Each structure stands twice: as structure tokens, then as C-alpha cells.
Amino acid sequence: MTRILGLDEAGRGSVVGPLVVGAFLVDSESIDALIETGATDSKALAPADRERIVRELPRVGECDAIVLPPREIDRYVARGALNELEAKTFGALIARLGPDEVHADACDVDARRFARELVRWSRVPARIIARHHLDRDDPIVGAASIVAKVRRDEAIARLARRLGVDIGSGYPSDPRTIEFLKGRLRDEFGVPGFVRASWATMQRVMVVPPARTLDAFES
After folding, report:
1. Which pTM value belongs to this model?
2. 3-162 domain in CATH 3.30.420.10?
3. Residue 103 to residues 44, 118, 144: CA-CA distances in angstroms?
């Protein structure tokens, strides 16, 4: 029996809220039961299906996740090291769960390089496979993508409730998110901690107050 760990992330491109790395650990003997849940790429599933599947997953294997807040993401983006942060986080989950084999959806354009980084950060004697689109092609990674997506959606929902406003999905492509950011940045000084200040989107939506003229000071 082989213990196989699937890894994927959700929220990499979001401007609001965390990036979540999800993990799902399953015995090789339980893969058929996992397939029966319908686990696949979370982006291909309706929210209700993701919620149903994530409730079924603990009966098949073990779910885990690490949540990366915007400020930590900003620190790595500042030195062009977002892929390093993801590899480090994937590696932390590998070390924590101790699988025999790892299937990871590669975040780097060079999947082999990403696999080498997972070996470096995890320091676990596991067979590591990193490829693109594994969330679509491998149900174990699909399960991990569901864990990541549901955890991130929950974080966005909690934030929206706390702020008492519709913040949308948190992605730059969402008009609701952009309108929220424009209003929020207009009403307060600085960038809130739940926003990724390093994103290019922020340069487009930052409201710069008009310069005061000499007449304004004299009036």
C-alpha cells in the first residue's frame, strides 16, 4: 500500500485575500473510492459540488491546507520569488504528512524544476511528480484543488461578512472586486492587510488625491 499526497493551490492570481495550498493524502487502495466522489479540478465544478465533495473527502483520506496571507505574498513578490514561496509551502505539507509519493500541480512553467524545489524544501524521501494540469488529470490532485478552493472561498466569505460589503471573488477580473478596492482605497490611508499591495492591479486602482495648489493653502 502506497500513501499518495496530492497538492494544489487556489488564489495565486487574486488581489484580495489569501493564497491557499491544499493537500489530500490517500492510500493507493482507496483511489477508487476517491474517484467515486467526483474529485477533479475545482475550477470545473460548481460551488455546490465542491462543498459536497469536500465533505466526503475525510472518509476517503486526509485533508490539510496552509493559508498564506497577502503580506507574506507581498514579501516574496518583492524579490520575484512567488514560485519559491509556493514550493516552500508545498514542501512543508509534504514534510508534515510524510507520504510515499507526491503528485503536485506545478506552479512553475518548468515542471521539472518545480519538482526539484519540492525535493529541496520537503527533505522527505518520497517520489515526487510535478506536472501541469494534474488537477484536471489526477483525482488525488483534483481533491487537493477542491480543499484549497473551498478553504479560500471560506476565507473570502468571512472577510466579506466582517467588512459588511460585497468584495466579489477577490480576482482582478471581477468588476465587484475592483469597485470594492476603489471605494476602500478612497476611504482610508494605505493598503489594508487583506489586499496584495504588490499586485499591478493596485497601481491601476489606487486613487491619488489631487495636488493642492498655493491658492488652496492661502484660502
Report:
1. 0.91
2. yes
3. 19, 11, 10
CB count in 10 Å sphere of residue 200: 8
Which grid cell sits at 193? 492587510
Q: Which regions in the chain score pLDDT beneath 50?
A: 208-219
Locate the domains of the chain by residue range.
3-162
pLDDT tens-digit readout, 15-41: 999 999 999 999 999 999 999 999 999
Q: Cα 33 to chain center, whole Å?
A: 26
pLDDT at 209: 44
- Complete DSSP assignment for 168-210: TTSSTT-HHHHHHHHHHHHHSSS--TTB-TTSHHHHHH--PPP
* Nine-digit cell string for 219: 484660502
String of DSSP letters for 5-48: EEEEEE-TT-SBS-EEEEEEEEEGGGHHHHHHHT---GGGS-HH
Greatest alpha-carbon pair distance for the chain in Å reads 81
Give kind and range of the element (H or E) at residue 66.
Answer: strand 62-68
pLDDT at 159: 96
